[in-house]
Amino acid sequence: MRTAARKYAHSIHVAAVHRHYRWSAGYRVAAAHHGLHSRHDAVRIAHREHRHATHIAAAARHHRGGAGSGIASVYSGARTANGEHMNPHALTAAHRSLPFGTHVTVTNNHTGRSVVVRINDRGPFVKGRVIDLSPAAAHAIGVSGLAPVSLSVGR
Question: Which residues of 83-105 are buried (b: 16+ CB within 10 A; e: fewer)?
């Protein structure tokens, strides 16, 4: 009998969690993005996406202030990792771990010129490079191919 009461209490708790995520933004986003029909699957996906977002936010806190230095390169493409179309005239960049939308000040170590870019893509995937700049951002600091740069997160 005690086991039945526990099972009933657990089912009430699970139902409350499902109701919460059913109407929450996490559930709707997960369901729409993954094409899910099951509440259980949507809750599982919402939890996973929350953990991923928390990990990315921790990476941003780790980089806050000084994101380091290294080699910058110029890139172009058709579509970025966050789903935008690549705009070569926008001041955007690709970084491996900073969250999308983060503003980073990139300073060319040779010329001393700097530009604020918005992270909207993932990369670079070449060892030793820390950031990929859009053609407009690279032109703004005088980079035509590869250049040593310093990064600072935030404005």
Answer: eeebeeebbbbbbeebebebebb
Q: Are residues 8 and 36 in the same domain?
A: yes
Is 60 exceeded by the pLDDT of residue 57? no
Tokens, residue 34: 């993954």
Mean pLDDT within 67-88: 89
pTM of the model: 0.59
Domain count within the chain = 2
What is the sign of the dihedral through the CA atoms of 81, 85, 89 and 90?
negative
Q: What is the pLDDT of residues 14-29, one digit of tens each?
A: 555 555 554 455 555 5
145 and 80 part of one domain:
yes
Report H helices in the chain.
2-23, 25-34, 39-63, 135-141
CATH number at residue 107: 2.40.40.10
